[in-house]
Amino acid sequence: MKVLVINCGSSSLKYQLINMENQEVLGKGLVERIGIEGSVLKHEAKGVEGKVVIEQEMKDHKVALGLVLDALVDEKHGAVKELSEISAVGHRVVHGGEKFNGSVIITDEVMAAMEECVELAPLHNPANIMGINAIKELMPEVPNVGVFDTAFHQTMPKEAYLYALPYELYEEHGVRRYGFHGTSHRYVSERVSAMLGKDLKDLKVITCHLGNGASLAAIDGGKCVDTSMGLTPLEGLVMGTRCGDIDPAIIPFVMDKEGLDTKGINNVLNKKSGVLGISGVSSDFRDIENAAGDGNERADLALKIFDRRVKKYIASYAAVMGGVDAIVFTAGLGENSASNRKEICEGLEFMGVKVDAEKNNMRGKEAVVSADDSKVKVLVIPTNEELMIAKDTQELLK
C-alpha cells in the first residue's frame, strides 16, 4: 500500500508518499510561506538526485496542493507514474471537537462534522478541508482518512481540560481544552523512549512543538496529562500570528475601542497578533531573527516574549508532573533554531537543565543537546507526523 500523507499547517504544507510495506518514503516535500511573499515548494523523490525547488506565488493551500500533485507525477522528478498508484490519502485534521476521539475514514458525514469545527480552528480546518476536497476531485476512487490533532490529548484528566466556566457550557457546547499537534507530540515522545533506551511508561517528558503554530505537552508515562492549546489553537504560547494566552477582558475592551464585531476580533487574535503583531516584521521566525540581528528592537522583543512564554510552560509542566526527565524540541523552529533552544533553557538550571553549547549548535537532526551532567535530558527530534498519519490510515483501511 502506498499512502500519501498531507499535513497542512497555517502557512505550510508537508507531504510524504510512503510505501507502507517497508515504510520507505518514495517522495516528500515542503511548501513554505503559503499566503506570504516568497512561497516555495521543495520536492524530492527516491532515486532523483537533489531537491527540486519551485518558486511560485501560492495564495492558499489549494494552489499549493495542486503543485504538490504535479510534482509527484512529474516525468523527471516524480515519485509515481500515475496518481492511481496511490492507495489512500491520510489527512491531518486539526480539530475534531467532541465528535472524534480517534482517526476515521472520511465520509460525507465526517466532512460535515469537520465543517462544524471550522469556528474552533479558523486557521487550520479550512485548509484541511480544502486539501481533502482537492484530493476527492482529483482521485475520486481513493479512500481518505482523517487523523485528528485532538486525539492524543484525550487522556488528559478533567482538571486539566475543564475551564472555570459554568459547567453547563461544557455539557451543552463542549467548551473545554482539546489540545493540538497531537500526532507530533505522540511521535517525538515515542522517539525519546527509543533514543534514551528507556520505557516510555517510566518517563516524564515535556514536548515542545515550536513553529508558526506552537504548543507544549506534558506526557507522563506515555499519556498526555496537560497541553498548552485549548478549545482552539489560539490558546497557549505566542505564535506566528496568534496571541496565545491573554487576559480575556482585553477582547471586549478592544472590540469597543476599535469598533470590531466577533469576526473582526477573531481576525485580530488569529491573524494579526503573535510575533507578527509584536515585531511588525513577519510571522516567519527566520525573518524576525534576521531583523533582530540587524538591530530591530521590536523583532528582538518578539523573540524574547516567545522564549519567555515557552520557558514558563516548561516549568509549570514540570510542577504538574512532579518532575521531568526529558525536554524535547521539535517542528520548524524547535528543530532548527539553536539560539531559541538556548534562550528557552537558560534559567532552568534550578530544574537540572543544562544545554551543551557545542552539541546544541546543530539543526534538523536527532540529537541529545544537553550536557553530560544535565539531570534533565534535552533533545532535538525532527517530527514525523506523516508516518503516524500513514500508520493510522493503513490500520483503518485493513
From TrEMBL:
Q: Which PROSITE patterns match?
A: ACETATE_KINASE_1, ACETATE_KINASE_2
**SUPFAM superfamilies recorded:** Actin-like ATPase domain (SSF53067)
InterPro entries hit by this protein:
Ac/propionate_kinase, Aliphatic_acid_kin_short-chain, Aliphatic_acid_kinase_CS, ATPase_NBD
Q: Which residues bind ATP?
A: K14, H209, L210, G211, N212, G213, D284, F285, R286, G332, L333, G334, E335, N336
Q: What are the alphabetically sorted keywords of the record?
A: ATP-binding, Cytoplasm, Kinase, Magnesium, Metal-binding, Nucleotide-binding, Transferase
Q: Which GO terms describe its cellular component?
A: cytoplasm
Query: For site (Transition state stabilizer), what residue positions does UniProt give?
Result: H181, R242
| Protein residues bound to Mg(2+) | N7, E385
> What's the cofactor?
Mg(2+); Mn(2+)
Its UniProt entry gives the catalysed reaction(s) as:
acetate + ATP = acetyl phosphate + ADP
Positions annotated as active site in the UniProt record: D149 (proton donor/acceptor)
Q: For this UniProt entry, what is the primary localization, expressed as one broad class?
A: cytoplasm
Protein EC? 2.7.2.1
GO molecular function per UniProt: acetate kinase activity; ATP binding; magnesium ion binding
Role = Catalyzes the formation of acetyl phosphate from acetate and ATP. Can also catalyze the reverse reaction.
The UniProt entry, under PANTHER family, shows: ACETATE KINASE, ACETATE KINASE-RELATED
Q: How does it assemble?
A: Homodimer.
* Alphabetized HAMAP family for the sequence: Acetate_kinase
Give the protein name, as stated in the record.
Acetate kinase
What is the organism of origin for this protein? Anaeromicrobium sediminis
